[in-house]
Amino acid sequence: MATIDTQNLTKSVAQPKTGKPTLSGRESQFAMTWRRFKQHQLALVSLWIVVAFYIVALLAEFFAPFDPGDYNPRYTYAPPQGIEFVFVEEDGSWTWGPYVNGYKTEIDPQAMRRVFTIDEDVRHPLGLFVQSEPYMLFGVIPMAHKLFGTIEPRAPLYIIGADRLGRDQLSRLIHGTRISLSIGLVGVVLSLIFGVIIGGFSGYYGGWFDSAVQRTIEFIRSLPTIPLWLGLAAALPQDWSALQNYFAITVILSLLGWTELARVVRGRFLALRTEDFVTAAQLDGASDYRVIVRHMVPSFMSHIIAATTLAIPGMILAETALSFLGLGLQAPIVSWGTLLQEAQNIRTLASAPWLLAPGVVVVVAILAMNFLGDGLRDAADPYGK
After folding, report:
1. Cβ distance 255 to 297 under 8 Å?
2. What is the 3-class SS of 42-54, one letter each residue?
3. Which long-range contacts (CB under 8 A, 24 or more apart) does 97-102 make?
């Protein structure tokens, strides 16, 4: 009669070679979500793109070659300078370094205006951590170096061109990234707070409070979005500072963006309030606050994270649209929307198409965040593979 080697069987069960969860424990929800998310290659690439955007926004003063307000009327509507590389001999050894060509001006005989062309005979070498005007990083750290720039002082450097006042478009785009992304992030955080609290109590308690909340949500969602944004933005006092307008636009977008998340949270609470673990917590004497915060909300936190990620692009597009129409953020605040205001004339489309670069950045950022949200939603799906 065959015998079973229980000792070896126990070892094989206790120490699996596959790296998967053992019989004595389970894979955590975070580990399971991350494992599924890594299988979504497009979402993983989008994650790194979004992280890069926020790093640039956080260190805007360091990455931008110039201050966004610096201007040079000698280089109005200067075209982009391409970065090139050349091998040079120094002290008997060959090294290579990047450079940009200078400009030369000509007079257009038909339009009778100055036109810039690239002068290939003039080279301005570039360097890393170059000396710059003193500035404050994060508003508290004094610094006097930029990530890159021209080694020669006062040499022109317009990687993606200049605007109508001779301001560096790249520096303004980098600083605008901070404003636009922060509005999207702060606005979604406020919408998340409103949506979870209002939607949670609506689904947990029900009754007249639930009916009142749902009718309010239906009323807000029935209003035309663009005219509502325009009306609320136009109602801001004209004597407010740019910073006050910034916070006002953020609050307005948050007050209009919480309704969808509140609907989702309410539906989840209606489904969870009759579950056994909720009933057990109530019978154990747990307060309503503890039942909601410690038991119900964590059970679908992954879905909330995914919904939040998908809501950020909507906030960014709303701010960009309002600022583009002149009813959102205004100068001297620099955002993607205010930068796109420069592209509202025929000359921009005809002779300075590089001023449309903020629109390209908006498209890339929105697509990356949408792909990231899709990946998080698929990874957090409890019925996914």
Report:
1. no
2. HHHHHHHHHHHHH
3. 97/125, 97/126, 97/127, 98/125, 98/126, 99/123, 99/124, 99/125, 99/126, 100/124, 100/126, 100/150, 100/156, 100/157, 100/159, 102/155, 102/156
Count of Cβ atoms closer than 10 Å to residue 38 Cβ? 13
Structure tokens given for 289: 């606050």
* pLDDT tens for each residue of the chain, 385 residues long: 445 454 444 444 444 444 444 444 566 767 777 888 888 889 899 999 999 999 999 998 999 888 888 888 888 888 888 888 877 665 656 667 788 888 888 777 776 677 888 888 888 888 888 888 888 887 788 888 888 888 887 888 888 888 888 889 999 999 989 888 888 788 888 888 888 888 888 888 888 888 998 898 888 888 887 777 777 777 777 777 776 777 777 787 777 778 888 888 888 888 888 788 888 888 888 887 888 878 787 777 777 777 777 778 877 887 787 777 777 777 778 888 888 887 777 767 777 888 888 889 989 998 998 888 888 877 776 555 5
Helices (H), the chain: 6-14, 29-38, 41-58, 60-63, 169-205, 207-222, 225-234, 242-257, 259-272, 276-283, 288-290, 297-299, 301-324, 336-340, 346-351, 357-380
Instruction: Report the C-alpha gap between 117 and 80 in whole angstroms.
Output: 10
| Edge-first strand listing for the sheet containing 141-150 | 84-90, 93-107, 114-137, 141-150
Q: Residue 159: which residues within 8 A CB-CB, separation 6 or more?
A: 65, 80, 81, 83, 100, 168, 170
